[in-house]
Amino acid sequence: MNSFTKNKAAWLIVTAFVLWISSMVSAFGQVSSKPTNPPPKPLQQIVVQTDKAKSQPTTNTKPQASATPLVTKTGSSSPVAIVPRKTSFPILADVDIPGYSGILVENIDGNVVLDSYSNYAFNPASNVKIATAYAVLKTFGPDYRFPTSVWTDGQIDSSTGTLNGNLYVSGRDPMFGLEHAVAVAGELNRLGIRQVFGDLIVTDNFAMNYSTQAQSSGNALLATMNSAKRSAAANRAWQNYLVSARKSALTIPSVETSGGVYVQSLPTNARLLFSHESAPMREIVKVTLCYSNNFLAERLGDMLGGPYAVARIVQMNGQIAPEEFIIQTASGLGTNRVTPRAMIKLLRTLRNELARNKMTFADIMPVAGVDKGTLERRFDTDFERGSIVGKTGTLGQTDSGVSSLSGEIQTKNGKLLFVIFNQRGSVNRFRAFQNSLVALIQGQMGGATPMTYNQVPLDVRLANTRFTYPDTRARVN
Question: What digits encode the pLDDT tens for the residues 296-353?
């Protein structure tokens, strides 16, 4: 074999080896760079259903062909990101939905009015409080009252108005405030106690005036019961309470304690004097949702075992998949993830629980344009006032801005359950969108109509407290 032939053979071998290496690298690159499905971009495809048949939950697969006439709008995106928007009203197909949003509106029978990305998880913000409300109502019942109990290990000397011994206070009432401390002093006065020769001891779960610290709560209780040390804020709270409760006081309640304040457990020889009972749970929940009070929501959640316990109660009773309802707080602060479809299921479950107790959404949630709180100045026109009951949610920074609104709409052609989750944008713009969308839906349903609702001021609701006794011991007036 001459040198030319040898060189040609060697060149062919090298070329074949290079081609083989290239094919292997290409194959490996195709495997390792396989893309994952990104979250959908809103309004990539809109499918409008013009019939009134019940729609199936939206999935992130390409829609199948249907015999129902469809109006379709498509944007530029890969097929894996296509998600349909379904609606029984074609006009809703042209609504410009801001931000990254999920919406689900259904009638009471479960037929879809509007469905856009309802199976994707969003941050519901304070709509999480709806879950907390359901969980406490389901667990404790709407008529449950939180007791704050007063005990002693001493003896009462009615002739001198003294208690010779320690005073103990236990309880976890999240609503126990300044006015209730004054009321406790008044009840001690009724038993003939105006001075305590001993210490004030509170248990570690005692909380007062929105404090989570037992020691500071005990200090506040000691000062508030004593009229000589009582703050101006406590005096105002007491006077407002008397007005709301339609009560009067002939004397100024006061109890002076000689000792200090300590946090300890109850001793076995402590004797119960009486218990102060909060307003019923339904009223506490109403105030929590109207004002979207984070402290109350977290305290209520803690009584159930925290946000995980709240989620489990909701998932089990609402037949909700765990991956569709993930919460880290009972108030909605921080990062939580819930699908609109799961929230609609929760609303239905809550609605059924309320009906079982002869209640409606309006008994625990704010009525827009009527109740004080977050919905007081929304939907407050003559056209809409009293036709919407729901829960707002707002996070200015988390997830680049979040606004949510869920609840019930009453129209001339029936009631609708609705969930609107907006995130990644201007909260003000989201609220304006929610207002306009709800009004548009009401218009398509024959117009808004106010619900039957007997408004009771929130402070009057909370004034519905009482004292209970372990026996029929006579009071000293």
Answer: 999 999 999 999 999 999 999 999 999 999 999 999 999 999 999 999 999 999 999 9
Whether 31 is covered by a domain: the verdict is no
Higher pLDDT, 42 or 425: 425
Q: Which of 239, 231, 129, 226 is nearest to 179 (CA)?
A: 239
Q: How many CB atoms lie within 10 A of CB 199?
A: 18
- Statement to judge: residues 105 and 245 lie in one domain: no
Domain final residue pick, 278, 304, 329: 278
Q: What is the dihedral of CA 318, 322, 323, 328, to 10 degrees?
A: 100
Of 212, 330, 228, 286, which Cα lies nearest the Cα of 455? 286
End-to-end CA distance of the chain: 129
Question: Nearest to residue 109, comparing CAs of 178, 48, 54?
Answer: 54
Beta bridge partners of 152: 167, 271
Calpha distance 292→129 (Å, rounded): 8
Q: Which domain covers residue 60, as residue numbers? A: 45-83
β-strand partners of 433:
none
Q: Is the pLDDT reported for residue 70 higher than 70?
A: no
Query: 233 and 291 share a domain?
Result: no
Ramachandran class of 117: left when φ > 0, alpha when ψ lies in -120 to 50, beta otherwise? left
Is there a domain that residue 28 lies in?
Answer: no
Q: Are residues 221 and 178 in the same domain?
A: yes
Q: How far is CA 466 from CA 245, 275, 375, 379, in A?
A: 11, 8, 30, 36
Residues 368 and 304 in one domain: yes
- Whether residues 217 and 230 share a domain: the answer is yes
pTM over 0.85: no
